[in-house]
Amino acid sequence: SLLVKIVIPRNVWLSMVSSILDVYRKEALGYLVGERQGQTLRAAYISTTQRTKKRTTHEAEERADTYSLVLQVAQMAGMSLLGDFHSHPESHGFKYSCAPSRSDVASLRQEPLGWVSLVVSISGHPPDRLELTWGCWRINSKNALVRVPGKVLG
């Protein structure tokens, strides 16, 4: 398959990072909305789906409802759902990488072909300097995990 790449405008990146910082010690979640221009994915905005309470038995249902709403709004704007994003926050001094976990990969395999998952690793203890690294991933037509090259503009 042809090389897919993702382009993230600076304002979209800053919105994503802000949403991650809002729940700094917890995992941030959201969707990437934008346009597919040939093999280039152009993010236009994010939609966050932060959990405000503990996981519930209705979580899958809530996720389906949120997905449906985000998809409708994207379509009204003439755009597509490109994929999702989430954070890997530092936990008890352990820094997680921006590589997807085993459960991330399993989730990604459930998504439609072409769906991407952007993972942001965040560590550091304020007021010390924060460290952010990110990677974007997808499952290719051979069912293998591949990294999607990308850049933040500006």
Highlighted features:
alpha/beta
Total E-strand runs: 8
Structural class: alpha/beta
* Straight-line distance between termini: 29 Å
Principal-axes shape call = globular
Element string (H = helix, E = strand): EHEEHEHEEEE
Strands of the widest sheet, in order across it, are 7-6-5-4-2-3-1-8
What is the gyration radius calculated from CA atoms? 15 Å
Describe the structure.
This protein has 154 residues and is α/β, with parallel strands linked by helices. It is built from 3 helices and 8 strands, in the order βαββαβαββββ. It has helices at 10-22, 59-76, 102-110, and strands at residues 5-8, 29-37, 40-48, 80-89, 116-123, 131-139, 145-148, 150-152. It has an 8-stranded mixed beta sheet. It is globular. The two termini are 29 Å apart. The model has no long low-confidence stretch (mean pLDDT 87).
Summarize the structure.
By secondary structure, the chain is an alpha/beta fold.
